[in-house]
Design a protein that fits this description.
The chain is 6% helix and 56% strand. The protein is built from four helices and 34 strands. It has an eight-stranded antiparallel β-sheet, with no helix packed on it. The chain has an eight-stranded antiparallel β-sheet with strand order 8-5-10-3-12-17-14-15, with no helix packed on it. The longest helix has 13 residues, at 32-44. It is globular, with a radius of gyration of 24 Å. The chain starts with 14 loop residues before the first helix and ends with a strand.
Length: 544
């Protein structure tokens, strides 16, 4: 219910369809309506739902607020992903990446080209801005005589699409296309003007290369929101993942696999208990460092590292219901045809908070976003899009946002990116957004009398005349009076309870904004909702 996930795309995607769309758009008048239709035709030719502006917020990493309360739980760490040397061969890494803050002093990512690699292996190294104004790359080789600079770039001028499937030329991103012999290397990324901000740093071997990457390492600052190191496994291999403190209090590590259904947790650790000497030549068992030893199959992965001990006294309380409005500019490219559109969405989110960690479901699609609160600064992340059928394969799908809380007001700025193929046709979408939220519940308010879980059934008449029905559950949080509905099809909405009545809202990708209301009487719950583009529904149930 309320999900385009269950509804067929208006245009099944294939190359002929994309060509017809392009031909139709060439002859279209370039007024506002035609431009919007242009964007809609491109978007509807994909079996992909974008999670911002079209049914959910918030999006991914952008401008960093200039003022915030002191940070807690940050410190330096050495984080490594290494193929185990206690196996016959180690040729499973195709790509390694870092997604996170680049401070004014720069970020260093190290890697090893295996000794049994071809004499000269090709590597594409990129630094893509996610808020860092003007990234610059310096590539160094570590030798017996010290570090030797091999190449530098601060403005990508080469089209790398044929090598790694993407073009990074935008006047800001940096790139290198280098042939490297076996050895130890590191990439230093800084801002040309000395600023700080987020960036995505990647070291990739072109498609068809003999895998030659042995190790990825990050040596630098881990903020309270953590850092993420990504990698692509090309064949089944055993990997040792380590997070060694260089000042970060008690590092904790979680490994995720990126799938069409979202990020799936593979394993986690916050205290290494296994001797890794046979695998990487060192023992990390000291009561503080974290480690994982895993055999991983073909796929996309990232490891997240945070400081485990975060005191709740270092963050403001933002648990509860927040009413938000978001404006987002999205650019989508399908099989070479590109268009940009600005959209907006509204809705209520119900934030759950455990000390300084937070999570909530994005309106409309019910996809979970999670993050941290550091002082009055908020950082969240999650997928940028969801696949609507198995023909979609993501090569990249990420979203983060940052902002600050001032009393009952919260502002989050961000941007997001997704790319991949749909039935063999390539696509990519990017978005930048700004969301403004107002707290609906009173801090410390309670709803003990109506708290609990309610279950029942719903019926919905869609804006196109179709009828749906199913089951729902609604949870009322006694600590902050937030209510969150989940249906058999997804997320009905979130809201706030005041005495025995409540208001909820969410978004639907096809029928627009959804608003509803209801009441709780004894053990019974009931209510109704409407779509802004037509259609309505109702629900009723009882307390379990």
């Amino acid at each position: 219910m309320l999900l385009a996930i269950l509804r067929a795309s208006a245009l099944p995607i294939d190359k002929d369809n994309s060509l017809l769309i392009a031909q139709a758009l060439v002859s279209a008048e370039h007024d506002q309506d035609a431009a919007y239709k242009h964007y809609e035709d491109i978007r509807k030719s994909l079996d992909v739902a974008i999670l911002i502006g079209e049914g959910g917020f918030v999006s991914a990493g952008g401008t960093t607020p200039q003022s915030f309360q002191p940070r807690a739980g940050q410190g330096n760490a050495l984080v490594s992903i290494t193929q185990s040397q206690a196996q016959p061969s180690a040729t499973g890494l195709l790509n390694i990446s870092y997604n996170g803050l680049v401070p004014a002093t720069g970020t260093i990512a190290g890697f090893i080209v295996t000794a049994d690699a071809p004499t000269a292996s090709q590597f594409v190294i990129t630094a893509e801005t996610l808020g860092l104004p003007d990234p610059e790359i310096e590539l160094f080789e570590i030798t017996q005589n010290g570090s030797i600079e091999r190449a530098t770039n601060d403005n990508c001028t080469q089209d790398l699409s044929a090598l790694v499937g993407r073009d990074f030329r935008n006047g800001v991103n940096a790139c290198l296309n280098e042939t490297l012999p076996p050895g130890l290397y590191f990439v230093s990324v800084t801002d040309v003007g000395g600023a700080s901000g987020k960036a995505l740093i990647s070291i990739t071997q072109p498609s068809g290369s003999v895998p030659a990457l042995l190790n990825l390492s990050y040596n630098g600052l881990v903020e309270v929101a953590g850092i993420r190191l990504g990698f692509i496994v090309g064949s089944t291999q055993t990997f040792a993942l380590t997070a060694e403190t260089l000042g970060l209090p008690d590092p904790a590590m979680t490994l995720y696999q990126i799938t069409p259904e979202g990020n799936q947790i593979v394993a986690s650790n916050d205290n290494c208990e296994q001797d890794l000497t046979a695998h990487v030549g060192r023992d990390f068992r000291n009561g503080e460092d974290a480690c994982l030893l895993l055999t991983l199959e073909l796929g996309l992965y990232f490891v997240e590292v945070v400081g485990k001990e975060i005191s709740s006294t270092n963050c403001v309380d933002i648990a509860g219901a927040w009413d938000g409005a978001e404006t987002v500019t999205i650019t989508c490219t399908v099989d070479g045809d590109t268009d940009t559109d600005t959209q907006s969405s509204t809705g209520i989110i119900a934030i759950e908070q455990n000390e300084c960690r937070i999570s909530y479901k994005a309106p409309g699609l019910g996809t979970t976003r999670s993050g941290t609160v550091d002082g009055n600064r908020v950082s969240v992340s999650g997928p940028f899009a969801v696949a609507l059928n198995p023909s979609v394969t993501f090569s990249r799908n990420e979203a983060t946002a940052e902002g600050t809380v001032d009393g009952d007001q919260m502002i989050l700025n961000g941007s997001g990116v997704v790319s991949g193929t749909d039935s063999g046709v390539s696509f990519s979408c990017r978005g930048n957004s700004r969301g403004t939220f107002t707290r609906l519940n009173s801090t410390g308010g309670t709803c003990e009398d109506v708290a609990g879980t309610y279950r029942g059934t719903y019926t919905s008449n869609y804006c196109d005349g179709e009828r749906y029905s199913g089951t729902f559950s609604a949870i009322v949080n006694p600590q902050n009076c937030a209510i969150e509905f989940t249906t058999s099809d997804g997320n009905l909405g979130s809201g706030v309870v005041k005495e025995s009545t409540f208001q909820i809202s969410t978004n639907d990708l096809e029928c627009g904004a959804v608003t509803g209301s209801g009441s709780i009487s004894g053990n019974s719950i009931s209510g109704s909702y409407r779509f802004s583009l037509g259609g309505s529904g109702s629900f009723s149930g009882s307390k379990q």
